[in-house]
Specification:
Order of helices and strands: HEEEHEHEE
Strand content: 15-25%
Shape: elongated
Radius of gyration: 29 Å
Helix content: 25-40%
CATH superfamily of one domain: OmpA-like domain
Largest sheet: 4 strands, mixed
Length: about 200
């Protein structure tokens, strides 16, 4: 049996094409595996489902024949900053034990749940403020106790300490102009997130 140059060339082209097809199909298979869509539970949806990629990205169908029977997933938007007006029992600063206005705790709990639920790590700062009663030194220490109490509560609720800045105080140095300097409205803790 004689092998001609033409048949060798044909065999070489066929082998090259087969190798390219194999490599291409492996790449497509890997791409499909990495972008696999799945249904996940979600309490915000009436049927308890949402669509997400394997990377946790929300479903958005760019294809006319894409799935249309499920809503796209929606994430809670975490506000860049919130203010809580915690009132503590006299000279006591433990959250939640010594908080007088317990409804403010729901704001903190909701915020913690939202920052824990984001796909990125949120770095959080916590700054305590006071009204104008008392000396500057007293109010700086008071604001720090408030901020420390809220920071400790974040940690107790499972938020990583490494994602929390050290507590800060501005005391009476940043009063809200719309209220009297001595108003209870000045007593607050400002929580701010910074995307890393």
């Amino acid at each position: 049996m004689f092998i001609t140059a033409k048949s060798l060339r044909t065999a070489a082209v066929a082998c090259t094409a087969a190798a390219a097809l194999f490599i291409g199909s492996a790449a497509v298979a890997q791409d499909l595996e990495e972008s696999y869509w799945y249904a996940a539970g979600g309490a915000n949806f009436p049927n308890g489902q949402l669509w997400a990629t394997s990377y946790g990205e929300c479903w958005q169908s760019a294809y006319p024949d894409g799935p249309t029977n499920l809503p796209p997933c929606e994430r809670d938007i975490v506000p860049a900053e919130i203010t809580v007006k915690l009132l503590f029992e006299f000279d006591k600063y433990q959250v939640p034990e010594t908080v007088v206005n317990r409804e403010e705790l729901a704001i903190i709990d909701d915020y913690i749940a939202k920052v824990q639920g984001t796909p990125v790590e949120e770095y959080v700062t916590i700054v305590g403020h006071t009204d104008a009663k008392g000396s500057d030194a007293y109010n700086m220490a008071l604001g720090m106790r408030r901020a420390d109490a809220v920071r400790d509560y974040f940690i107790a609720e499972g938020y990583p300490a490494r994602l929390l800045a050290p507590a800060e105080s501005l005391g009476k140095r940043d009063l809200l102009p719309q209220y009297s300097p001595f108003s209870v409205e000045q007593r607050r803790v400002v929580i701010t997130k910074i995307d890393q």
